[in-house]
Write a structure and sequence with these properties.
Length: 175
């Protein structure tokens, strides 16, 4: 069942609830991923970013991996945001946090990431991610959400900024 907020003309107080995504969502996720990463490729002067090179088969395989937890937000049936978190021991490796270009700046990425973190298995004690040094919006968002820069790695024309955040438990049930 699609979960949508009632009146499409109404101001949304909160984004729609995130839904689990799987291999059946691979095509739509890949389309969203490409749209979201083109501005990043331009900013970093690199059209060979891995998210832009990922194939449908690779996306489908990632979404079918039991260690990969994928979440998305749909508005009127359209996938407008998604994130993947891969469990690696006690770490949740956050990747491919994407929001449709026309929906960026509305809190979808932040709310989706926080919901995905809260829904991860209890074995996850820390979250790790990285982004390009020229990704101003994501850099601000990650810091605002409690991620701390741990180090940088050099790419051809820029650096990747690596972040880490300990898991915060809220005491409520994980769904």
């Amino acid at each position: 069942m699609d979960r949508e907020l009632g009146n499409p003309g109404a101001v949304m107080a909160a984004p729609p609830p995130p839904l689990r995504l799987g291999p059946v969502d691979a095509g739509e996720m890949l389309t969203l991923q490409r749209a979201a990463y083109v501005p990043e490729a331009r900013a970093h002067e690199n059209i060979d970013l891995p998210p832009l090179l990922e194939t449908f088969e690779q996306t489908k395989a990632a979404l079918g991996d039991p260690a990969c937890f994928a979440w998305g937000v749909r508005e009127s049936g359209r996938l407008v945001a998604s994130v993947r978190i891969v469990v690696d021991g006690g770490a949740g490796l956050v990747g491919r946090l994407i929001v449709a270009p026309d929906r960026q700046g509305h809190g979808l990425g932040s709310s989706l990431l926080l919901a995905a973190e809260a829904a991860m298995p209890s074995s996850v004690t820390v979250f790790r991610l990285f982004t390009g040094e020229r990704s101003a919006g994501p850099l601000r968002m990650y810091r605002k959400l409690g991620y701390v820069e741990t180090h940088r790695t050099r790419e051809e024309h820029y650096e990747l900024v690596h972040f880490e955040k300990p898991r915060v438990r809220t005491g409520g049930p994980v769904r």
